[in-house]
Amino acid sequence: MKRALFVRRAAGLIGAAGLSLLSGCLDVPHPFRDPGREGRSLALNPPPSRLAVPAPSAALLGDAAAGEWSRDVVAALLEQSVPAVAQPARKGDWWLRLGAVSRGGQVVPTYSVITPAGVVRSTDEGMGVPAATWAAGDPAMLKAAAGQAAPGIAGALTGIQADQMDHDPHSLKHRAARIFFAGVAGAPGDGDVALARAFAASLRDAEDAVQNVPRDADFSVACKVTVTDGPPGTTGHPQQHLQLVWRVVDAAGKEAGAATQLHDIDAHALDGHWGDVAVAAAQEAAGGVRQVVARYSGRDNVPLPPPVVAHAQR
């Protein structure tokens, strides 16, 4: 009876507060981030790892203010995990064309993503600013305009990456992710083996393939289990803190994300057979790892529609 009660409590934990995704490791990918050697080898036409943002020549600003706006946009894009750089566009660069148009007594800033072939891939507009304020090139106003526009630009880049993946037969939009599972370590009792078996069985589906060798894997997953003594529970019985961290890294060894499960258990309740507890924990962990892989790879992102072909002047 005591064992069955624990199994139900453990399952309840995992469905409630037991699983947390480390959001700091789940930033949305963009096409201008360097995917590493393995990622580049899978792409048919990989973009460069930076987005050039030249100072605009036709933005209704003086030269000094135009340069400051370019730098502000770069800073705002870096906050969105887009490795932008304030410099003129060079041959082979993707770049962001800054501009501005007069409309009804206001100036509307514009942002166009340009391909290396000079095609306008996307265009976004910022909020209108009184013409006199814009012409004065107020630093606070330029910084605010850049910050307001950055999320939309980053979203467009995500859509561009998704479109590239859609047209790449080798991308994770068209095949299952190859995941090397390095196993579980640190669990008491038979937890290392029971969790590993249950996790491998739970993760396999049409989108994720588990393999036991690291060669050619898109991602690697390993779980570390930690058990520490805690204070007595409400009934006075000794307690332990159980933590499972499922860490996901990409093919280049960069952190892709992690799923963490936490629970307080009766002391030494898992020193023997894990049974259904391992199955419940592994199923929930598999869902978390699947989310990490999907968000990091961008396989679930919506492609940006094809552009109306127009060539940009540098």
UniProtKB/TrEMBL annotation:
This is Lipoprotein. It comes from Gluconacetobacter johannae. The lineage of its organism: Bacteria, Pseudomonadati, Pseudomonadota, Alphaproteobacteria, Acetobacterales.
